[in-house]
Structures are given as C-alpha cells and as structure tokens.
C-alpha cells in the first residue's frame, strides 16, 4: 500500500504539508446530539443497592428506559459490562445514549433468552427515537444459541422517525438489526442508520421487512455466518403489502458474509405491491464464500414493480484464503423482465479465482420456484460504463427455465429480454456470452480486452492527495485521486484504507474505502464528513492506497521502508504483527512539531 500520514486537529486549524491526507472531527448531526438542556437520566441512578453492588442490571436498565420524565436516557459506564435479559423501549420522543466504552451484553446464564424471538433490545410502535452509541456496543446471544434465527440484537417494528448511529452490534443468533412490522399496514417510516457496525451475526447483519424512507450510510456489515441467508444486508418483505420505498444505501462496506453481501428477496411481493425504489451507491461488496455478492430474486406469483439503481459500486470477488471455492459476483433468479428494473452505472467487478463453477461472474436467470409455471421472458437490466475483470468464462451467462430439481420435466425455453448498455471485460479468456435462445431487445455491447491485469492490461498508475493544506473542525475532507495511462475508456476502481489515531465511524464518517474513476475521467474526489468529539488533542490519520493487481501505485517520493499488514475488514483481519506481500505500505509521516501525538484508546480498527 502507498500511504500519506499527517496530523489531525480538533477544533483548531492545523497546517498540513501539501500532498498530505488528514481528517478531523466535525459536528454531529442535530438528531444525534441532544440539546444541552434536555432532561437526562443515567441508568446507574436506578440501581437498587445504594453502593451499586447489585448485579441485576436488567431491572436497572429497564427502569431507566421506562422513566417518563427523561428526554435523554444515558447508559453510562459502570466499570464493567451491563449484563441483561431482554430489554424494551416502550416510549417515544427520546434519545438513548450509550456512553463511550459501554457494552450491553445479553445475559444468557439463565433461561430469559430461551424464547425463540427474545432480543436484546426491542422497540415497537414508537415515534421519534434516537439510539446513539459511538464507541459502545451491544452483544447478543450467538455464543449460546446456535439453532434458531430470531433472537435479534436490535429488533425494531413499526417505528417512525428513528435514528441509530455510531453503535456496534455483534454476535446475535438472528439478525443484528431487524426492521419488521407489528402489522402488515404499519411499515417503519423515516429510518436512518449511520456509522453503525453489524458484525458476526448468525443470520444477517441487517434484515429489512418493510420501510418507507430508509437511509443507510457509512455502515459496515461483516462476517454473518451460521444460517441462511447469512447476508450483510437482506431486503426480505414478508407480504404483498410490505414496503421497500425511498431507500438509499451509500458509503457502506459489506464483506466477509458467508452468503450474499446484498440480497433483494422479493418473492413474497407481487404486481399489487407498491413499486420498490432502492439506490445503492459508493459501496464495497467483497470477500464472499458461497452465494453471489449481489443477488436479486423476483416475485413468485407476478412481477414486482419498481427500480433498483446501483452506482459507483465495487464488487470484489477473489480467492478467499484457506477456503478455496468462492462465488459469482452478480446474479438474478426468477426475475421476469417486468420485475424491478436494475441499472448498474459506473460499477466495477473484480472476479478473480472464482472456483465455484455454478455461479459465473454475471448470471441472469429465470430459475423457477417449486410449484410455479415457467416464465416466457426474463431480464430487465442496463449496464452503463461498467467493467468486469475476470479469469472466468463465460463471463456473462443467461439461464432460462431450468427444470425444478427432481421433477423430470423439460420446461419450454425462456427468452432473455430487455438487456442494454456497455460492459468492458478484461481477462485472459476469450469473451463469451451465453444469452440463451432467441434473445429479444438485447443490445449489450461487451468490449473485450484479452489480457491479464497482472500483465498490466489495465495499465493505470494511481495516486491520492489531500485537496486542502489545512483541516479545521467542521470541515469536509476532500481526497483527490488521479490516474495516468491505462484503459481510460473504462471505469477504474481503487481501494484505500484509513488508519491512525483518528478512527472511522467515530472521528469521521464511514466510507466504502473505494474510489471509482468513471470512463474517460482521470481525476476524481472523495469527501468525508467529520464529527466533533470531546477530545481536544490533535490526531493523525493515514490514507493508504491498497496494492492490487488491477492498477499500479505511483511512487510518492518521500518514502521510508515501513512494512506492515494492510488493515483488512472485520474481526477476521490478520494481526498487526503479520505481513502481507500483496498489501505493503509506503509511508511518509509527519507532525506539526515533530512529536508523536498521543492516541486515544481504540475499540477496533477502521472498517
């Protein structure tokens, strides 16, 4: 990796050298910062033992959550983890603020979580709720329960005007965060999930059943493993009446999940459903195990109306160490031509070392659900200025009306229909596309570049610099990326990492850690908002380009031979003592007065 390091100041302007990359904290959103004169209560005030030695944290925490006078309920630091049976927030117009360093852990020593749907914190039917927890975490029931899928970390049903920000939720037997309903006509409305980490859940990181207005930004969904679908994010309505409307997911990382990274399971919706509207932009989908990274399933009975827009997304499917077989990158199954129309714009797919031959890099299919009739047409995709780098063939595979397993039938062929745009394909294999019999209204232009990226086929040299020579509290950081040479007619994705004393999803907003150059452009910018914390010392951040075979990193000039492993994603990362030959840092480090700035205790790496 190639990197630049400079000090980060808080509440003051810091002079930074040209070419430096640095970040600093900025004010939180208004909703995440309670008013100074808001009525606050502290959970520790509700302890029953005067000396605070009582160990029934559930009674203490539930009493605080039930306090009718509080506008802000602070889960404060008591010097140890809070250990609790299931909790319930039974009121609205309130902020629940987890103090820094606080852990609320499911107490599974007894039988309180034996009920299959018992969750750590449940919120149902409320309005105007904020859950804020920077440097705090909720730990679920997965260590004990490994047979079910409904014990959630945070279970939210039919809540309106909800903010969840800064919190880490991990180790649930079910989903980390569940957005469900109390009744089919009561969707969640106006929900924001920001700078949240959802890690190591048995089912999904996030499951969305019904919502009208959802913003997911700066979040990390990692390492779901245990029971299907094992996805980072799963949009899975249960009924025709459920809503998936006005949804935006941006600047997120979805990686290391054993199923899909992102899946739209629309089987239970129909033509009578309100049209779906989902936008996914500036995200990273990476490091799969079995299923395609992005998968879309259409309606069982009739096509589901709506649109899915995917923009500036990197889908990274490469060999997974010590696992062997990985998966395809992009797929749809039983998505009729009239199901949600999918557009991909300025997206890049790296599919290298895919050993699981069932899933081609891109598979568009009409595979049937048991008991359903064959569909005559399938498709409904547009690729605009997209790049696929792969060693697999065929690179584009259309599969129509496969027989249901064990049925012995021979279904009639289906026609691939309504597929458009342009796709550049780089790889050693001859570019082939299996489009099935008699495709209709298909004008997808596939431009072949028959070479290996390791041989310099993409040929671009990339660099990064900070646009500003100084950064003040409240500023927005602008990173400038440049590329020289190479395949300028196609988009190019580069990966970067942020490290140092300042932390992602704390001092500055979470990001996808990717930047994508559109076709024909040699300069792009990435902006990162910052937020205000209580600290007053300056801190540094390092912006490092990750060394990938798909581009070359420009020599930064002032270089010293500092070698250390790349900061990979999630708890499965290598230890800081190991080294990766493919991700080596070239480092330049400075501070204002030559001293090493002190660093705060970190609760984890920068995802």
Describe the structure.
The chain is an all-beta fold. The chain has 2 domains: 1-27 and 469-588, Immunoglobulin-like; 40-455, Single-stranded right-handed beta-helix, Pectin lyase-like (Pectate Lyase C-like, 3 Solenoid), CATH 2.160.20. The protein has 1 helix and 46 strands. The strands form 5 sheets. It has a 24-stranded parallel beta sheet that branches. It has a 12-stranded parallel beta sheet with strand order 6-9-12-15-18-21-24-27-30-33-35-37. Strand 3 (40-42), helix 1 and strand 4 form a beta-alpha-beta unit. The two termini are 16 Å apart. The model is unreliable at 1-31 and 557-606 (pLDDT under 50).
Break the fold down into its secondary structure elements and pairings.
Layout: E1 2-6, E2 14-15, E3 40-42, H1 57-66, E4 72-75, E5 82-84, E6 87-89, E7 94-98, E8 103-106, E9 121-124, E10 127-132, E11 137-139, E12 154-157, E13 160-165, E14 168-170, E15 177-180, E16 188-194, E17 197-199, E18 206-208, E19 211-217, E20 220-222, E21 233-235, E22 244-250, E23 253-255, E24 262-265, E25 276-281, E26 284-286, E27 294-297, E28 306-311, E29 314-318, E30 330-333, E31 341-345, E32 348-352, E33 362-365, E34 377-390, E35 396-399, E36 415-426, E37 433-434, E38 440-449, E39 461-466, E40 470-471, E41 477-484, E42 492-499, E43 514-517, E44 523-528, E45 541-545, E46 552-553
Parallel strand pairs: 3-4, 4-7, 5-8, 6-9, 7-10, 8-11, 9-12, 10-13, 11-14, 12-15, 13-16, 14-17, 15-18, 16-19, 17-20, 18-21, 19-22, 20-23, 21-24, 22-25, 23-26, 24-27, 25-28, 26-29, 27-30, 28-31, 29-32, 30-33, 31-34, 32-34, 33-35, 34-36, 35-37, 36-38, 39-46
Antiparallel strand pairs: 1-45, 2-40, 39-41, 41-44, 42-43, 42-45
């Amino acid at each position: 990796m190639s990197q630049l390091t400079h000090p980060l100041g808080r509440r003051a302007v810091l002079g930074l050298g040209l070419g430096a990359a640095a970040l600093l904290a900025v004010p939180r959103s208004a909703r995440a910062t309670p008013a100074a004169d808001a009525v606050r209560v502290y959970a520790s005030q509700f302890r029953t033992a005067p000396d605070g030695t009582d160990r029934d944290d559930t009674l203490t925490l539930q009493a605080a959550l039930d306090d009718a006078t509080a506008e802000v309920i602070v889960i404060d630091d008591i010097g140890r983890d809070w250990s609790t049976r299931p909790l319930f927030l039974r009121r609205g117009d309130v902020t629940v603020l987890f103090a820094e360093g606080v852990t609320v852990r499911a107490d599974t020593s007894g039988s309180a979580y034996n009920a299959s749907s018992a969750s750590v914190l449940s919120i149902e039917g409320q309005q105007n709720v904020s859950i804020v927890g920077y440097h705090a975490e909720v730990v679920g029931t997965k260590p004990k329960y490994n047979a079910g899928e409904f014990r959630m970390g945070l279970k939210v049903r039919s809540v309106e005007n909800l903010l969840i920000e800064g919190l880490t939720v991990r180790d649930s037997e079910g989903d980390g965060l569940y957005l469900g309903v109390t009744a089919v006509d009561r969707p969640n409305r106006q929900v924001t999930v920001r700078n949240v980490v959802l890690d190591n859940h048995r089912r999904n990181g996030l499951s969305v059943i019904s919502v009208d207005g959802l913003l997911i930004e700066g979040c990390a969904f990692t390492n779901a493993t245990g029971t299907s679908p094992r996805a980072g994010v799963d949009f899975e309505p249960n009924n025709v009446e459920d809503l998936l409307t006005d949804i935006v997911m941006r600047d997120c990382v979805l990686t290391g999940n054993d199923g899909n990274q992102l899946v739209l399971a629309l089987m239970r919706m129909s033509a009578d459903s309100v049209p779906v509207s989902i936008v996914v932009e500036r995200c990273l989908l990476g490091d799969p195990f079995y299923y395609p990274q992005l998968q879309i399933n259409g309606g069982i009975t009739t096509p589901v109306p709506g649109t899915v827009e995917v923009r500036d997304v990197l889908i990274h499917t490469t060999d997974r160490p010590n696992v062997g077989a990985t998966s395809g990158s992009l797929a749809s199954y039983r998505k009729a031509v009239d199901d949600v129309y999918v557009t991909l714009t300025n997206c890049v797919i790296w599919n290298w070392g895919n050993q699981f031959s069932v899933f081609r890099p891109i598979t568009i299919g009409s595979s049937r659900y048991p008991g359903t009739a064959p569909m005559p047409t399938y498709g409904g995709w547009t690729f605009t200025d997209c790049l696929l780098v792969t060693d697999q063939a065929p690179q584009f595979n259309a599969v129509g009306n496969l027989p249901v397993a064990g049925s012995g039938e021979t279904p009639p062929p289906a026609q691939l229909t309504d597929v458009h745009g342009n796709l550049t394909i780089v790889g050693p294999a001859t570019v082939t596309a299996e489009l099935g019999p008699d495709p209709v209204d298909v004008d997808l232009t596939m431009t072949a570049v028959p070479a290996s990226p390791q041989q310099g086929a993409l040929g671009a040299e990339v660099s990064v610099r900070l646009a500003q020579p100084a950064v003040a509290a409240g500023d927005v950081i602008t990173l400038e990326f440049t590329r020289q040479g190479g395949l300028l007619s196609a988009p190019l994705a580069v990966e970067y990492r942020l490290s140092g004393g300042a932390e992602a999803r704390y001092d500055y907003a979470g990001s996808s850690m990717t930047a994508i150059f559109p076709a024909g452009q040699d300069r792009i910018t990435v902006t990162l908002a910052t937020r205000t914390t209580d600290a007053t010392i300056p801190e540094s951040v390092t912006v490092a380009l990750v060394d990938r075979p798909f581009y070359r990193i420009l020599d930064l000039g002032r270089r010293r031979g500092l070698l250390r492993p790349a900061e990979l994603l999630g708890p499965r990362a290598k230890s800081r003592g190991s080294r990766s030959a493919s991700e080596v840092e070239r480092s330049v480090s400075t501070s204002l007065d030559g001293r090493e700035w002190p660093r705060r205790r970190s609760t984890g790496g920068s995802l």
